[in-house]
Structure formats: structure tokens, C-alpha cells
């Protein structure tokens, strides 16, 4: 039995942290579903930027949509929705078989809306309505402005993947927003079953402190943060407030591990996947990490419900000058800035490709 299947049998969903037109067309995504127990996928502006910039797979669609008047964000979302609705259809059997617990894909709102609550809500409702797929999450960052948007979007009945979470405090703020949205739905007599996941980014912690701590602490901060958050997650699910919501038919907002590819070349390439094995969670991983875990990864036990050594490890980092709360805010801010940079680059790539492809098409017509 493949280790990916073992992880799935443990109760953790394996999602792919990637989407390209190529893996849809050549059958790679189908193979991951059939052979590696992949049951969902996530996307973000950086993933789409790389996919469109480094491939000709989108060129025909860009040319066609540009000729029809498409440009900028509108053109991008048309391309992204083509990919993600096709992926959603591939995962639909899983979604149906698990009664909506699994089998999801994710589309992010424009990163330019990170500090715009009402704009985020409007965009989320619009994009989900265009997709017309029950298993498509709209990704909303867990920034201060995003928290309000999450509550309102959940209340509106749109499934949400909360992205750019880095700490237990940020996760709990997202969980609170989700529960408030569900409580408002129950009070209004609406169906409380609205899907959501909370995405906690892991490896970026270790990248941020790699040159600031002793060798003995290298690549340990992200895992400690994850253990702390997992304890908070399990405690929340056992709380009277959540049990009351569950009794009304609400489903849990699952904790998702993001940024689980190893960044340190000296560390094992399956480091985070092995450390983050935990029931009732999701691990979304890049293709390279997924294939590495399937090839030589090992299931080494599950995360402790009580946080294990997390608090002791975090104390060691604090002793070496790492302010967990300050760094979490910095990482969230930098993450939003990184996605904004990718978004602007993506808009430039689309504009450039539109001009180049259109010019080439006119030249071809002229030669005919």
C-alpha cells in the first residue's frame, strides 16, 4: 500500500497544491486521484502566474478570449474557472461520496482586495456564482479585513478556504469568523452546512528564522506552530459552542496544512508531510512533495492532541529572540504582498501574451 493511501486511511486528506492546464489535459491529475489518493487541490495567484507564464497551454484560449474583448482580471478569471471547474468535476465523485467533506478545489479572490472587506465579499459571491460548482472554495485571506469578509461570505452560503494563516491566534480568529457566520445562518433559519477550511502555512516560518537560530532549532518552528494550532483545533471541536453548532447540522471547518514543501535542501523532502500526519486535517502539497512522499515517505505516527513538545520548542525560539506574534503578523503581511506581486506579474503576462498572440494571428492571416 502506498504511503499516500496510508495517510488517507489515517483520516487526513491529501490535496495537490497546484493547478495547470497541462495536468488536466495529459491525465496527470486523474492519475494522482487514482494512484496517490489525492482528493482535492488548491491554487493561488503565484501558481497561476507560473502556469500561464511558463506554458503555451493557455495561448489558444488567451487569443480567443482577447479577440472577444477579454482582458486583465476578467480574462484571468475566465481562464482560471475553466481549469478549476474541470478539476472540480474530476473531484465531484469524492465530494458526493463524502457528503461534501472532501473533493474540493479552491479559487482565490484578487489579492488587491486583501484590505477591502466589502469588495472581497462581493467578489466571492460573484466568482462562486460563475463557477456553479458546489465543491469550489473561494479563498479569502485571514487578514484583519478578511476576517469580516469570511463571516459575511459564510453567512451568504459561499464555501470559504481561509488562506494566509500563520499562527494559532490567526487560525482561531478565522474559526471564530466561520462560527459566527454559521450561527447567523441558524438564527436566520438557513442551512448551516457551509464548507470551510482554514489554511495554516508551515514552512515559511522556518525560512524566516533559518539564519537567526542555532542549528539545533533549524526546521522545527513551523512544526511546533502546527502542533500548537492542532491542539487548539481539537479543543475547539470539543467545545460546547461547537457541539451546539454540530447538533444543528453544521460541519467542522477543517484545519489545512499549507506550504508543506521542504525549502531547506539539507532537510528531508518529506519532512513536513511526515510531521503533520493528523486525522481530520488536510495536507495540500506541491507535486514534487507529493511524489516524494509516495516514493519514499513514511508514516511515523500522528500529531499529539495535547500539542506534544510545541510549547517547550516555542520557548526555545523565544529565548533566541523569536517573537511568535510579531513574526506571524510579518509573515501574513509578506504573504499578502507576495500574492499581490504575483497577481500584478500575472496581469502583465496576460497583457503581453494577448498582444503577442494577437499580432501573430494577424500576421498569419495576412500571409494566407
* Mean of all residue-level pLDDT scores: 95
> Roughly how many Å apart are the termini?
57 Å
Low-confidence stretches: none
Strand elements, count = 8
Oligomerization category of the chains in this entry: single chain
- Shape call: globular
Topology record:
Elements: H1 3-10, E1 13-16, H2 21-25, H3 28-35, E2 38-41, H4 45-53, H5 59-67, H6 72-97, E3 105-108, H7 117-131, E4 136-141, H8 144-155, E5 160-165, H9 168-187, E6 196-201, H10 203-209, H11 221-237, H12 240-247, E7 254-258, H13 271-275, E8 281-285, H14 287-296, H15 310-319, H16 324-367
Parallel strand pairs: 1-2, 1-8, 3-4, 4-5, 5-6, 6-7, 7-8
Describe this structure in words.
- The structure is a single chain.
- 58% of the residues lie in helices and 11% in strands.
- The protein is of the alpha/beta class and 368 residues long.
- It has an 8-stranded parallel β-sheet.
- α4 packs parallel to α16 (324-367), α6 crosses α16 and α7 crosses α8 (144-155).
- The mean pLDDT is 95.
Overview in brief:
The chain has 368 residues and is α/β, with parallel strands linked by helices. It has helices at residues 3-10, 21-25, 28-35, 45-53, 59-67, 72-97, 117-131, 144-155, 168-187, 203-209, 221-237, 240-247, 271-275, 287-296, 310-319, 324-367, and strands at 13-16, 38-41, 105-108, 136-141, 160-165, 196-201, 254-258, 281-285.
